[in-house]
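Hi support team,

I've been running sequence recovery on a batch of backbones for a student project. Most finish fine, but this one hangs at about 90% for roughly twenty minutes before it completes. I'm not sure whether the input is malformed or the queue is just slow. I've pasted the structure tokens below so you can try to reproduce it. Let me know if you need the job ID as well.

Thanks,
M.K.
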């Protein structure tokens, strides 16, 4: 909550203790530094968010009829499943670029999101699920960040995300020769 409201700089031992309704020194007893507090908060958020996204993804895929339906359901789940915690997540990601002490928590969070995506994408027949998961998470994060900074109308946001997810699925489901045939791009190795 504090990170969502004021960024990582809003996190102090005293502020966390006050928000929790505890005596002022309590957070300092459990967390040596403020970075430790922010690290723990991001790790907890990532753990909870992975569970939420796993359920959203599984629900979206269950009973879906074809790729367009899957992409639409996943896009809807991502857009409608956004939380205030996403703002805190991206605040901490940006802070980690300036504060290496948070790098481990950010890398761990990203790895958890990518693992969840790889597991789910692999079940859909993606040929390189780990590679696809990195792209999928980056795209989902990009759309979420834009949604926070400069929101589009809901239907436009959903349509753009649906088209992007469909394109990504096709790109990662087909091999290079199949992709070239679809795009009618000559093979540079035959020039």
């Amino acid at each position: 909550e504090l990170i969502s409201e004021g960024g990582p700089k809003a996190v102090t031992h005293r502020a966390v203790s006050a928000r929790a309704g505890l005596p002022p020194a309590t957070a300092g007893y459990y967390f040596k530094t403020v970075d430790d507090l922010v690290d723990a908060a991001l790790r907890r958020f990532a753990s909870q968010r992975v569970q939420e996204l796993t359920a959203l993804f599984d629900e979206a895929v269950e009973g879906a009829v074809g790729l367009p339906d899957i992409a639409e359901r996943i896009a809807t789940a991502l857009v409608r499943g956004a939380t205030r915690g996403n703002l805190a997540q991206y605040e901490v990601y940006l802070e980690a670029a300036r504060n290496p002490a948070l790098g481990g928590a950010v890398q761990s969070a990203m790895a958890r999101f990518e693992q969840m995506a790889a597991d789910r994408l692999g079940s859909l027949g993606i040929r390189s699920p780990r590679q696809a998961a990195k792209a999928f998470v980056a795209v989902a994060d990009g759309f979420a960040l834009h949604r926070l900074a400069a929101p589009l109308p809901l239907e436009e946001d959903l349509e753009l995300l649906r088209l992007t997810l469909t394109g990504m699925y096709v790109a990662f489901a087909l091999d290079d020769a199949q992709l070239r045939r679809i795009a009618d791009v000559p093979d540079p190795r035959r020039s």
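--
Follow-up from support: It reproduced on our side and the slowdown came from queue contention, not your input. The chain has ten helices and no strands. No action needed from you.
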